[in-house]
Fold this protein.
Amino acid sequence: MKDRNIKENNNWATPEYFYKPLNDRFDFDFDPCPLNTGEINKENDGLLIEWGERNFVNPPYSRALKEAFVKKALQVSQNGSLCVLLIPVSTSTALFHDVILPNAKEIEFVRRRIKFKGVNSFGEYVDNRSPMHDSMIVIFDGRGESNE
C-alpha cells in the first residue's frame, strides 16, 4: 500500500469487516500473505510454500511482489485451486491485460476505499489508512475445470 503520508510498507492487514464476507462466501483454507510480524523465510514465504485449495491473497502492493503473487495465484488456480485476490485497480497495466483479464473467472470492483491496518511511518498502529488506489477482487478458479 502506498500513501503520501506513509513510508512504503508492504505489511498492511485486510480489515475483518472486509475479509469476513469474503470468507463466508469462499470458505478460505489458506492465506499466503498473512500480516507479517516477523522475518520472512523459506518456511513462510508465500511465493515458495504450497498453497491451499481455497486461497485468500492480499499481496504486498509493491509492484514486483504484487505481480509475483498474481502470477503465482494464476499458476495455483491452473492446478485446480481457487484464488481470490484483493489488489489495487490498475487496468492500464500489462499485468491486468495479459494475466488478469484473460484468466479471471470474475473481477469485482470494490466500492469505497478499504481501510487497512498496520504501522505507519511514525511507528503508530492505525486501522484507518486507505491506499491511493481503488481495490478490486480478482477470482481465479480452477476447481472443476479441465486443466489441459
